[in-house]
Amino acid sequence: MPPVDLGHALAGLAFLVGPETVPPLDGSHDSFVQLGQLGDRGLFVSTFSGKTPWERHHADELLLVLDGEANLVVLSDGNEQPARLSKGRFLVVPEHTWHRFETPGIQILGLTPQPTETCPNDRLPTE
Fold first, then answer.
1. Distance between CA 19 and CA 80 in Å, rounded?
2. CA 29/CA 124 separation, integer angstroms
3. CA-CA distance, 53 to 47, in Å (whole number)?
4. If we measure between CA atoms, which residue out of 102, 11, 91, 4 comes closest to residue 48?
5. What 3-state class would DSSP assign to 10?
6. What is the pLDDT of residues 27-57, one digit of tens each?
7. pLDDT tens digits, residue range 82-123?
8. d(CA 27, CA 23)
9. Radius of gyration of the chain (CA)
10. DSSP state of 88
11. What's the CA angle centered on 64, arms 92 and 59, to 5 degrees?
12. Residues 6+ apart with CB under 8 A from 115
């Protein structure tokens, strides 16, 4: 894989505005782009606001905030537990853990296992 100019990739992104919106996981929206691949994980950057649907992955996911701030809400034993993220902070979401973002605006880089499982609408996942 050739070197990636992260500044160039971010400059080309559109800002997706919520509420309750999320960049399409198939990369069809210009607020979300895949920069590369590492095994079964995609290296993605995105910029958006609002509340994302619940999602989970079959392996750990690394999330790094490039700009902005967000609550990353993790579902643990049926309870929502927010983790505050801001520029320069990162977090690893453990495998099979349901999570979602609530943000006024964020640029994020993720090393995300594929495929991503999502829970439709704004309901709590049951499993």
1. 19
2. 26
3. 15
4. 102
5. helix
6. 445 777 888 899 999 999 988 888 888 999 9
7. 999 999 999 999 999 999 999 999 999 999 999 989 886 667
8. 8
9. 14
10. T
11. 30
12. none
Residue type, 63: L
Length of the chain: 127
Alpha-carbon distance of 47 to 103, in angstroms, equals: 10
Place of tokens 């649907």: 53
Least Cα distance to 108 among 65, 69, 68 occurs for 65
CA distances from 29 to 1, 6, 40, 51, 71 (A): 23, 18, 21, 17, 23
Burial class (CB in 10 A: 0-12, 13-18, 19+), 38: exposed
CA distance 74 to 91: 11
Given the structure tokens 């006024």, which residue do they identify? 104
